Amino acid sequence: MRILITNDDGVNAEGLGVLEKIARAISDDVWVIAPESDQSGVGHSLSLSDPLRLRQIDGKRYAVRGTPTDCVLMGVRQVMKDCRPDLVLSGVNKGHNVAEDVIYSGTIAAAMEGAMLGIQSIALSQSFPPGLREAAPWDCAATHGEAVVRKVLELGMDPDTLVNLNFPPCPAGEVEGIAVTAQGRRDPGMLDIEERADGRLIPYYWLTFRRTPSTPRNGTDLKALFERKISVTPLRINMTDEPLMTRYARGFA
């Protein structure tokens, strides 16, 4: 199996090293094509107004001055055009990608781009305890990642789908199992804008996250992480709301 791995935290991110070990446990044909710098929160953006700069670090390892989506496109359409990958793995992201994170996440976007190109694609993220970003328990994803990825591949993926894996914020030995989940939803108002001033008292603005306490719903990715379980969430590229489409079709007839 030929595997392309990427991320949104950048080519030097610790999580990418964790993912490379997971990938190499599955195959000896692993290609790394990741952003030069942190691209967290860029979603499924493309670099349409700037050139893409590709830097070969060594062998099958490359850095792209662009977004995670750019990286997958560069990998499949340019670097690996004569040796198309069989699997795209994106991550391991530093921090979970659950609920509405899926909309903003560059990690998810890279896997989605792989799926759009007809390649089996999986996103992996490692949660960390609140306020302890630098204490992410990487051993959790490192220990359990290979087995979960292998199981997903064994079960298979439908066309135009991807799988979102999230590892709980605890050591590997404290994981309480695996849960197949739906995408959750937090309380509204998570994102806020904070006004600040620079040294010349000129105002500028910073996006901030305001995490409000809430009880996650059963069966969701949020609930799984709360219960120290690995969350496995299948996602679809086609976002059409079919019941509402049917209602509109009747109404406009």
From TrEMBL:
<dbReference type="InterPro" id="IPR036523">
    <property type="entry name" value="SurE-like_sf"/>
</dbReference>
<feature type="domain" description="Survival protein SurE-like phosphatase/nucleotidase">
    <location>
        <begin position="3"/>
        <end position="187"/>
    </location>
</feature>
<protein>
    <recommendedName>
        <fullName>5'-nucleotidase SurE</fullName>
        <ecNumber>3.1.3.5</ecNumber>
    </recommendedName>
</protein>
<dbReference type="Pfam" id="PF01975">
    <property type="entry name" value="SurE"/>
</dbReference>
<dbReference type="GO" id="GO:0008254">
    <property type="term" value="F:3'-nucleotidase activity"/>
</dbReference>
<feature type="binding site">
    <location>
        <position position="93"/>
    </location>
    <ligand>
        <name>a divalent metal cation</name>
    </ligand>
</feature>
<keyword id="KW-0378">Hydrolase</keyword>
<comment type="similarity">
    <text>Belongs to the SurE nucleotidase family.</text>
</comment>
<comment type="function">
    <text>Nucleotidase that shows phosphatase activity on nucleoside 5'-monophosphates.</text>
</comment>
<dbReference type="InterPro" id="IPR002828">
    <property type="entry name" value="SurE-like_Pase/nucleotidase"/>
</dbReference>
<feature type="binding site">
    <location>
        <position position="40"/>
    </location>
    <ligand>
        <name>a divalent metal cation</name>
    </ligand>
</feature>
<keyword id="KW-0479">Metal-binding</keyword>
<feature type="binding site">
    <location>
        <position position="8"/>
    </location>
    <ligand>
        <name>a divalent metal cation</name>
    </ligand>
</feature>
<keyword id="KW-0547">Nucleotide-binding</keyword>
<keyword id="KW-0963">Cytoplasm</keyword>
<feature type="binding site">
    <location>
        <position position="9"/>
    </location>
    <ligand>
        <name>a divalent metal cation</name>
    </ligand>
</feature>
<dbReference type="InterPro" id="IPR030048">
    <property type="entry name" value="SurE"/>
</dbReference>
